[in-house]
Design brief:
The chain starts with a helix and ends in a 6-residue tail after the last helix. It has five helices and seven strands, in the order ααβαββαββββα. By secondary structure, the protein is α+β, with helices and mostly antiparallel strands. A seven-stranded antiparallel β-sheet has the order 1-2-3-7-6-5-4, with helices on both faces. It is globular, with a radius of gyration of 18 Å. It has helices spanning 2-21, 31-42, 52-56, 85-105, 163-175, and strands at residues 47-50, 64-71, 75-82, 109-117, 121-130, 140-149, 152-158.
């Protein structure tokens, strides 16, 4: 009986350690650092939506306070700041994480990917071809990641497999201390 308890204890410890380390580590990104990285890598200024404009843009469902974005032909990058951590997590999980996991389960993604979600952060990293629903509908080649921690979510997607687009995306994510695919 003692041996069974020891084995169960070891199994539980290993399971807890695995769940803690399975989610890649990264820190909250300041909106100023986000804007600086966009300007340095893409030589563009971000579009900002905040205050009353959040409601007009239809971004108020999740108590979003600020939305910064750069949308170009082959890249879509956004920074969303929320009222609190719960709102940010709900946005990440409802709008991206569940859909991406469904796409994987339905074999609508071909390529490499990793994802994780725990109580303090979540991420989705991808490099491949997507053919899912919603955000992922017939997007073909995608490269990048989606990240949540505390009250912010960052979406960084290159809709391309060109070496220069991937290099720019990696440089952008590295500048912000975010994991790359």
């Amino acid at each position: 009986m003692k041996n069974i308890k020891k084995i169960l204890s070891v199994v539980m410890i290993v399971a807890m350690m695995t769940s803690l380390v399975s989610c890649k580590s990264f820190k909250v990104v300041d909106d100023g650092d986000f804007e600086d990285a966009i300007e340095e890598i893409y030589d563009e200024e971000v579009m900002e939506i905040s205050g009353d404009d959040i409601e007009y843009a239809g971004l108020d469902e999740y108590d979003m306070e600020k939305f910064l974005s750069l949308i170009e032909e082959d890249v879509s990058i956004a920074y969303a700041e929320f009222e609190d951590e719960e709102a940010a997590r709900d946005f990440f999980e409802d709008e991206y994480y569940k859909d991406f996991e469904d796409m994987i389960k339905d074999d609508d993604f071909e390529g490499s990917h990793s994802s994780g979600l725990n109580n303090s952060r979540g991420y989705i990293l991808f490099e491949g071809e997507a053919d899912g629903d919603g955000e992922w509908e017939e997007t073909d080649e995608i490269y990048g990641g989606i990240y949540w921690t505390e009250n912010m979510v960052i979406i960084a997607i290159a809709y391309s497999d060109k070496k220069s687009d991937i290099e720019d995306m990696n440089e952008f994510l590295d500048m912000l201390g975010l994991p790359t695919p």
